[in-house]
Amino acid sequence: MNKINTRIKRTLVTAGLASSVALLNAAEQPKEGVKNNPLLTHSALLFAAPDFSCIHETDYLPALKAAIQAQRKAIKRIVDNKQRPTFANTIVAYEESGRLLDHVSSVFFCLTGADKTDVIAKTEKEIIPQLTDLENEITFNAKLFSRIKYVYDRERATLKGEDRKLLDEIYKQFVRSGALLSADKKARMEQINKRIAELQQQWGTMLPDATNHAAVWVDNKDELKGLSEADIAQCRKDAERRGGKAPYCIVIVNTTQQAILTHLENRDLRRRVFEASLHRADGTGAFNTYPIVVEIAKLRAEKAELMGHKNYAAYSLERTMAKTPDNVYAFLKQLIAAYRPKAEAETRAIEDFARRSEGQDFRLQPYDRFYYSAKMKQAQYRFAEDDVKPYFNIDSVLVNGVFYAAQRAYGLTFKERKDIPTYHKDMRVFEVFDKDKRPLALWYCDYFRRPTKRGGAWMSSFSKQSKWRKQQPIIYNVCNYAKAPEGQPTLLTWDEVTTMFHEFGHALHGILSDCKYNMLSGTAVARDFVEMPSQFNESFATVPEVFNHYARHTKTGQPMPEDLKEKMLKAINFQPAYALGENLAATCLDMAWAMLPAKNVPTAGQAAAFDREALGEIGLLDVQVPPRYATSYFNHVWGGGYAAGYYSYLWTEVLADNIASCFAKRGALNPEVGQDFRKKVLSRGNTKDLMQTFTDFTGLKTPDVSALMKARGM
Question: What mean pLDDT, rounded, does the chain reach?
Answer without folding.
Answer: 92
